[in-house]
Amino acid sequence: MADFSNEAGLWATRALGASAGAAVSLVYLLPKNRREAASRFFTGLACGTIFGGPSGIWIAERLDLVDRLSVSEVMLSGSAASSLCAWWGLGILQRIAGRYGARNR
What we know:
The chain is an all-alpha fold. It contains three helices and no strands. The longest helix is centred in the C-terminal third of the chain and has 33 residues, at 71-103. The termini are far apart. 30% of the residues are buried.
């Protein structure tokens, strides 16, 4: 389970990683307007903050880096990865729904 302690350093690391992942997602696929940019950024920020801890642990274990990374590095990488993947996953689902939804009309 994710450690949602009150330690300010880990919260700052979560927010920094989530912001970085959200910013990268905006760079890779430019938004159509400001509303889409804000929606994507805050979606990435929320997902990176919530799922950063478990994602970081999972990534570190899969890459066999648990004993080489600090808690902050695991949190930062997990938050950034979760934030980046959140929008890409939603974007894929949106395109699939748009494609199959248009056929059923």
